[in-house]
């Protein structure tokens, strides 16, 4: 069996083939263009038994990984951090070239049996794209709103209240009577920002409508969990992707960064806060935990139980986040078991 490791970049990709003993049997660099896939096929077909390993198959390597998958090739996704460790251990130093990286990717796939196979993009990919687009729109809206708030504060004595929206900003601008050319410029800029704000609001509303349709197509039961809205459902499903890559709820919790890390030494047994994991999922779980700890329900009961045990409010919310990770994992597993089978 030949393992072909691929180190992708925007303008090129480097492929290195290794045999079962880890010896390099082939190496080639390809320019990224319309003929890249064809050239890679011709080069790799010299080996009848082959597997591909792509670094970052959900990032820069997404395109070539999906093309190889469409060609019925077996493709695994190699995390860049794991490949980096293999490269350092294999070379014994900090030497780094594209060929070294591609070889490390191949060696990782050869030695590590727990890598995830690349799958076709599905509804979860759509949800992730829509979720990331909403995050971009919200950040841009916040920037525009802050700038508009600053201009209105300079135009109106005492400024305007916080929590400004487009309607309130428009009403405030109608009352502005500039006395100088500078204030006239500020008013004109504020009007432009108001137009941008309305466009952002419209785009966010349209994005959320797309998100509702995409979530409805999944028939997920996550919205039944108190505190999980359509927006949070889309982010959860989009970032989780294929739930089968997590063999247990504990693995899922570790991925979300909600399980504490063991930090014991000698006779001292202790744990510390996990600051790793997928921070987007961690943020969603934090939002749901805050909501459930505030409102009546099972989450509030569990939160108060932890408070009664001597936990601080922050520690109690972290414990609730860990419990919610289990709940979400079970929901997604159950949804997948009952999902209708569609013809492909």
| Major pleated sheet | 6 strands, mixed
Task: Say what oligomer this is.
Answer: single chain
Unreliable parts = none
Estimated structural class: alpha/beta
Order of helices and strands: EEEHEHEHHEHHHHHEEHHH
Task: Give me the CATH fold name of the largest domain.
Answer: Nucleotidyltransferase, domain 5
Number of alpha- plus pi-helical segments:
12
Cα-based radius of gyration, to the nearest Å: 26 Å
- Overall average residue pLDDT: 90
Helix content: 55-70%
Give a quick summary of the entry.
The protein has helices spanning 36-44, 62-70, 80-91, 98-111, 123-155, 166-174, 181-216, 230-240, 249-256, 279-294, 298-308, 313-337; strands spanning 2-8, 12-18, 24-31, 50-55, 75-78, 116-117, 261-262, 271-272. It has 344 residues and is α/β, with parallel strands linked by helices.
What tags apply to this protein structure?
single chain; 344 residues; alpha/beta; Nucleotidyltransferase, domain 5; 3 domains; 6-stranded mixed β-sheet; 12 helices; 56% helix
Detailed description of the structure:
The chain has 344 residues and is an alpha/beta fold. It has 3 domains: 2-117, Ribonuclease H-like superfamily/Ribonuclease H (Nucleotidyltransferase, domain 5, 2-Layer Sandwich); 123-216; 222-337, no CATH class. Helices cover 56% and strands 11% of the residues. The chain has 12 helices and 8 strands. α2 links the parallel β4 (50-55) and β5. α5 packs across α8, α6 runs antiparallel to α7 (181-216) and α7 packs across α8.
């Amino acid at each position: 069996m030949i393992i072909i490791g691929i180190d992708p970049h925007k303008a090129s990709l480097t492929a290195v083939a290794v045999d079962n003993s880890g010896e390099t049997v082939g190496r080639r660099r390809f320019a990224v263009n319309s003929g890249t896939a064809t050239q890679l096929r011709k080069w790799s077909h010299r080996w009848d038994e082959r597997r591909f390993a792509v670094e970052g198959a959900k990032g820069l390597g997404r395109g070539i990984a999906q093309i190889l998958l469409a060609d019925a090739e077996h493709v695994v996704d190699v995390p860049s951090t794991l490949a980096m460790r293999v490269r350092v251990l294999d070379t014994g130093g900090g030497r780094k070239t594209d060929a070294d990286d591609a070889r490390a990717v191949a060696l990782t796939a050869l030695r590590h049996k727990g890598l995830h196979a690349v799958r076709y993009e599905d509804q979860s990919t759509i949800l992730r794209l829509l979720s990331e687009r909403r995050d971009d729109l919200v950040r841009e809206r916040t920037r525009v709103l802050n700038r508009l708030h600053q201009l209105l504060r300079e135009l109106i004595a005492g400024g305007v209240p916080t929590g400004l929206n487009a309607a309130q900003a428009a009403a405030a601008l109608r009352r502005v009577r500039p006395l100088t050319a500078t204030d006239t410029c500020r008013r004109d800029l504020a009007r432009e920002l108001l137009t941008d704000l309305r466009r952002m609001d419209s785009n966010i509303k349209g994005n959320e409508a797309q998100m509702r349709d995409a979530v409805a197509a999944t028939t997920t039961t996550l919205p039944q969990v108190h505190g999980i809205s359509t927006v949070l459902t889309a982010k959860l499903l989009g970032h989780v992707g294929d739930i089968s890559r997590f063999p247990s709820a504990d693995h899922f919790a570790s991925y979300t960064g909600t399980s504490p890390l063991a930090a014991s030494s000698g006779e001292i047994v202790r744990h510390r806060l996990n600051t790793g994991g997928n921070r987007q999922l961690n943020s969603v779980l934090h939002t749901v935990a805050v909501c459930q700890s505030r409102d009546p329900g099972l989450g509030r009961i569990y939160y108060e139980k932890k408070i009664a045990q001597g936990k601080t409010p922050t520690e109690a919310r972290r414990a609730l986040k860990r419990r919610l990770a289990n709940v979400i994992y079970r929901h997604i597993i159950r949804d997948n078991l009952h999902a209708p089978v569609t013809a492909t």
